Fold:
Amino acid sequence: MENFLDYLDQFRYMAGSLAMCILLCRHALPKREAFRTRLSISSLICFLLAFAYVPLSRWLRPVMEKAPIAIAPYWLMMSFALVGFVYVCYETTIAGALFRTMMAVLTENIAACLVRNLLVYTLFPDLPARNPLLYIVCMTAFYCLFYWAASRVLGTRIRSDEIARLTNERSAAGNFLFLYLAYTAMNATCKFVMEMLIVPLSRHADLLATYRYLQLYLVGSMLLLDVVMTVVLWSIYRRTALQAEKEIIVRLARERMNQYEFSRENIDMINRKTHDLKHQLQALAMATDDERRQQIEETSRAIGFYDAVVKTGNEALDVLLTEKSVYCANRNIRLSCMVHTKQLSRIRVVDLYTMLGNALDNAIESTERLSDPERKVISLSILDQGNMLYIELENYFDGVLDIRDGLPQTQKMNKLDHGYGIKSIRSIVQSYGGRLDIHTEGQIFYLEIIIP
Structure:
């Protein structure tokens, strides 16, 4: 029975940590190729490392009594196996993997402190050995409820890979690594004190009161440590998210000012041309064909650039669409936009800019490769469908498009450094509980987004 409970405890820890990693990553990070294979192999490795603790700790027990750090290499290996799990299965940086792993481990340890250490081992210490089935049912029910609540609280707030946007990713990874090592060391020390120093006191009747007091004190200390570390990590994430949003807002303001100057200059040009035409109609009628054609082309060009300034009522969307419209106008690409919605305000500025910016960049890149001028057309529609926001982007393309797992595969030679745009779009859409659908009909590419 003791062996069974020991292995069950290791399974609880690893299954809980992996489950929380998946819950924190599923809507925030794109999955890597061959995700199911990566998930299966990396999960198996993590569970094998967890189960190895039982025989390893017994074998090292005599050594650990004299040198407690003898088990440290194991704890490091198992801790970094979880980091490797996130990094291997999801597309993120080392800093992003460390951040999400720490949040997952902290959540699991808070759950363990509450139900395993406080409720079971402190209040009902005989429950696991006396009624293991009830113990398993209670643990499973509590963990499922606790993880559901944690995913609702953390998963909805940590829904984008803000950590990957840090300017100095290497420095950020170093800071997270230090925090992770420090936390692992403190947590391992607490567990060692509990198992090697405090639990043996329970075997002596005259020390039972001291055992209970020390046990409660250590459990409370572990719980406080977990809560403090969670608050620290959340503060880092929130500060990073606010900084990323601030940078986007500053960029939008700068682009808005540039577009104001751009619009003013072109309006002045139109006014000058109109004034000249009004007073020189007779002279224009007598001008040569080349002179007349030059005047008409200059005026049409000014009007065309002025028409590129988009006004939808949403500042972020106005700036983005104007930027792309000007780019398309310079390359003889017709960008048609139809915006009729009141729901864009509930999407964060940084998410809206990233999502539509990536979608339009991909469409423009595909359209630029076309040789037929009649097919250089991009159509964007943003509409309300009941209570849902509906976005559709259409453009022509050449060649054969390979769509796997609902996503088109990049046609560039360096596939490792490209293809993240569409995955980023899907992650943002999923973070709002929406759906991304990509398909082709003939040589027309369709990207559809539905957000409830």
Notes: The longest helix spans residues 208-279. The chain has a mean pLDDT of 77.
